[in-house]
């Protein structure tokens, strides 16, 4: 979905279009379609149509129960604003100065395509808004961030919080972004503002984003070096909270992947989503597992590991005979790629594919370690899928990315699979290179 890295990738760029699609169905959904915590089942699945029945069998891997300390339940359902295919978890944040001053926030989007925790200011209660104080630079200026995504940007201060997810807690406070806590008038005119502001839960479709991709920090060395930071930094120095200008920031002050700050189970994550009907489901419950090969419940097993660049991209993958950059991204609510042989939908579902019959496509994923595998994906007409306004989980929704040589394996790819993201531990002195893997 969303990435803070300057080599921007397409992440969740169709989210706004999907919001429009499901808004009309909200009254019919009510509060139904909920899941029991840790269950691997789905509810509300519809029977396969004649077009979906022509598709090959979908992956069938089931998630483990979210009962161990290194697990937390993932939910896809109506969520905050009825955006489809938004996987969410609950996250607890505590004030570093007062460890008992805490708040659990639901509906935080799980995003393997970005790095770091971001919480919408309005999702924090007044006590937490005061307890999580804004970070400052050595010159005393307030530190803020403009996190730029493919579909917009978030603007807000950087604050420190201790983070607990499932039964795991960071060893110390980590920098997080609080979205929308600064007036729109303070948004920098240079270096921020690409696309639409996404500073509310309504804009995001969630109460925040937890970026758990392969990188440890959301900008890394680019923002540490003053020369590159002057042109590319996400971070801004705001004297008196205004007149914000780009600034260099050390790693310790950058918004960080909180899982990498756990005392154990801190070398990667596994996103496990259940199989669902090709016609979609009202909801789906999976499991987010912390650590890879650190416990009996997170072994890599027979899954092949594809080493990636620092931000999780497989830059030598092949689709339709052309080299593309592929990425496995839970934060994108569909598959997104370019294929002129697929019919595009009309204006009601602009940007999505609406083939007259169900389709299958294949992409060859190629790691930097030369490991190769062919992944097949299924595609149904977005118009057909959205015809049932009570469904929020889809495994065969796809759209275009224009002329870019990119292939976004979004959340549909995760259903029925265990998808691994191994962190790049080298910036902290480790030896593990970033990698992705999957088992289905």
TrEMBL record:
Domain of life (superkingdom): Bacteria
Region (Disordered): 33-62
InterPro entries found in the cross-reference section: DUF3443 (IPR021847)
Keywords, alphabetical: Signal
Signal peptide span: 1-27
Biased composition (Low complexity): 38-54
Keyword Signal: yes
Keyword Signal: yes
Protein name: DUF3443 domain-containing protein
Organism: Paraburkholderia rhynchosiae
């Amino acid at each position: 979905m969303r990435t803070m890295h300057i080599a921007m990738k397409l992440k969740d760029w169709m989210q706004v279009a999907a919001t429009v699609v499901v808004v009309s169905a909200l009254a019919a959904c009510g509060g139904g379609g909920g899941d029991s915590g840790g269950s691997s089942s789905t509810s509300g699945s519809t029977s396969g149509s004649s077009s979906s029945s022509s598709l090959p069998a979908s992956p069938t891997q089931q998630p483990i129960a979210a009962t161990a300390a290194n697990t937390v339940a993932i939910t896809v359902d109506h969520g905050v604003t009825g955006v489809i295919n938004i996987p969410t978890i609950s996250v607890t944040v505590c004030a570093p100065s007062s460890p008992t001053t805490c708040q659990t926030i639901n509906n935080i989007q799980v995003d393997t395509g970005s790095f770091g925790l971001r919480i919408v200011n309005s999702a924090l209660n007044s006590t937490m808004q005061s307890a999580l104080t804004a970070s400052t630079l050595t010159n005393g200026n307030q530190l803020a961030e403009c996190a730029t995504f493919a579909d917009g940007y978030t603007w807000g201060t950087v604050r420190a919080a201790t983070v607990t997810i499932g039964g795991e807690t960071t060893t110390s406070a980590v920098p997080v972004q609080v979205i929308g806590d600064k007036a729109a008038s303070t948004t920098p005119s240079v270096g921020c503002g690409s696309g639409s502001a996404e500073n509310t839960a309504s804009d995001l479709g969630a109460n925040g984003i937890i970026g758990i991709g392969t990188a440890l920090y959301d900008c890394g060395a680019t923002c540490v070096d003053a020369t590159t930071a002057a042109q590319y930094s996400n971070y801004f120095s705001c004297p008196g909270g205004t007149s914000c200008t780009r600034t260099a920031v050390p790693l310790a002050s950058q918004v960080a992947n909180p899982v990498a700050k756990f005392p154990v189970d801190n070398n990667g994550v596994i996103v496990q989503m259940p199989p669902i009907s090709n016609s979609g489901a009202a909801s789906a419950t999976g499991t987010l597992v912390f650590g890879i090969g650190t416990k009996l419940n997170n072994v890599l097993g027979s899954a092949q590991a594809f080493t990636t660049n620092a931000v999780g991209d497989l830059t030598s993958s092949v689709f339709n005979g052309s080299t593309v950059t592929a990425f496995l991204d839970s934060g994108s609510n569909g598959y997104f790629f370019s294929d002129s042989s697929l019919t595009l939908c009309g204006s009601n579902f602009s940007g999505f594919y609406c083939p007259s019959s169900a389709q299958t496509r294949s992409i060859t994923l190629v790691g930097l370690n030369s490991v190769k595998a062919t992944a097949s994906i299924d595609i149904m007409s977005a118009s057909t899928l959205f015809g049932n306004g009570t469904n929020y989980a889809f495994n065969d929704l796809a759209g275009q990315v224009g002329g870019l040589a990119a292939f976004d394996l979004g959340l549909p790819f995760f259903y029925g699979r265990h998808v691994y993201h191994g962190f790049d531990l080298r910036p902290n002195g480790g030896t593990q290179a970033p990698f992705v893997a999957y088992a289905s």
